[in-house]
Amino acid sequence: RDFMHTSVPFIGSAYGQLRRAGVQSTNIITIAQVQEYMEQLVKGAHGVLDTGIERKFYAAQMERTRLQCKELLEEGCADWDYSDVNPGTVWSVLLGEGPGKVVPQDCQALLFAIYSHGDYHSTTASAAQGAPDYLSTEWFVHLPHPSQNADMYEFVATEGANAGCASNRHHTYLYGTQIRQILHKLFHRNPSRPVLGLLNYCTSGGVLDFMRRDSVRRAFGTDQ
């Protein structure tokens, strides 16, 4: 993400389209490394970074990013940036908890979109890696910084994440299990409010598999 960021250009473009469609900036909440990423590009353009990438490429990427994030940069950048771009912030913002800009409790309709990398791991360290088994797999989306909210991982099977190259990184993952819990809380509080989610990352389909499982639908009471 130091040179070609996965999500910032998409978030900047989405923000611009929402604003041009008439959505007020006060009704948009952005969690993105906009300023953090731009600072990296500036360093690269000035030759501060030793990455083997020529300065001119950093400068060109910086200009492209400025154009893609034009409205967002002009209107004060992301609401949550730097170390706040973590799973705990997504949890708090969607549930309207804590300080800062979050979804208000009287919100009448909610659209949330996640742009990033995604993957999955087995629920236990001993489980064989391979094709995902829906009963023993945790799907997740990557975020760049770790969550400070340890409670949101108490009901997630993270043992399988603490092996190999992913060791001790599960606090930077927002799991499908957590997204299900967020949706459950949202619909429990306001059953009639429409919620639309756009999950734009690899393996995101696994996150939504629960919608096809009768046992999970009964447990969450989604059809009531």
Break the fold down into its secondary structure elements and pairings.
Layout: H1 8-20, H2 34-45, H3 55-68, H4 70-74, H5 87-95, E1 110-115, E2 118-122, E3 137-142, E4 173-175, H6 176-189, E5 195-200, H7 204-207, H8 214-220
Helix pairs in contact: 2-3
Walk me through this protein's architecture:
The chain has 224 residues and is α+β, with helices and mostly antiparallel strands. It contains eight helices and five strands. It has a three-stranded antiparallel beta sheet with strand order 2-3-4. Helix 2 (34-45) packs antiparallel against helix 3 (55-68). The radius of gyration is 19 Å and the shape is globular. The N and C termini lie far apart (43 Å). The mean pLDDT is 89.
Describe the structure concisely for a colleague.
With 224 residues, the chain is of the alpha+beta class.
Task: Give the tags.
224 residues, alpha+beta, 3-stranded antiparallel β-sheet, two-stranded parallel ribbon, 8 helices, 12% strand, globular
Distance between the termini: 43 Å
Overall spatial form: globular
In what range is the share of β-strand residues? 5-15%
Can you tell me the residue ranges where pLDDT is under 50 for at least 5 consecutive residues? none
Mind summarizing the main beta sheet? 3 strands, antiparallel
